[in-house]
Hints:
The structure holds two protein chains of two kinds.
Chain A: E1 4-7, E2 10-14, E3 19-25, E4 31-37, E5 43-49, E6 52-56, E7 59-64, E8 69-74, E9 83-90, E10 97-98, E11 102-107
Chain B: E1 5-7, E2 10-13, E3 19-24, E4 31-37, E5 44-50, E6 53-57, E7 65-68, E8 75-79, E9 88-95, E10 103-104, E11 108-112
Parallel strand pairs in B: 2-11
Antiparallel strand pairs in B: 1-3, 3-8, 4-5, 4-9, 5-6, 7-8, 9-10, 9-11
Amino acid sequence: KNEVEQSPQNLTAQEGEFITINCSYSVGISALHWLQQHPGGGIVSLFMLSSGKKKHGRLIATINIQEKHSSLHITASHPRDSAVYICAVSDNTDKLIFGTGTRLQVFP
Amino acid sequence: EPEVTQTPSHQVTQMGQEVILRCVPISNHLYFYWYRQILGQKVEFLVSFYNNEISEKSEIFDDQFSVERPDGSNFTLKIRSTKLEDSAMYFCASSAERVGTQYFGPGTRLLVL
């Protein structure tokens, strides 16, 4: 059974700061997903990756398969980035196994 | 842009009552999922559905739960006899590929009294 751990659990930042959220998992995966959950509850997929690095706007996601570790970076953070960021993995099936999330607050 | 929709957005029910949560996945997607999130906890997988049958279900998905795709567009989750512990946000998701990006609906917040 895959265990997905995220750190930190809570993160506060000043606008403009560079942010890193970490995710580690315990067994091999077919893909890792980063998702964003806003206070209203809705979940939006940010990235799906199985190797290397992906970039979308100010967001960058990396994965190291050997170390079973992924990071989500936010450059030039903004108050609108405030949300819960969730790491989830697909192991040998297509269901997602979720981490507990990292609550990010960015202050102006 | 296509999106997954869910109805109702909120539902309050009495313990022991049946509820049906409805989802309309993105139209060309083939893989469908239900997840739930109890308040303050992480999102948990309930069931996956492909080709008109359940692909996988979790331990949570016991005999009180069932899923159906009655008309080729809707995807429903039925809870036959609700318990207090079924109170949660229920998310539907769909994907075009077996291991692909999953697109989530806005959720149905279920409260069992």
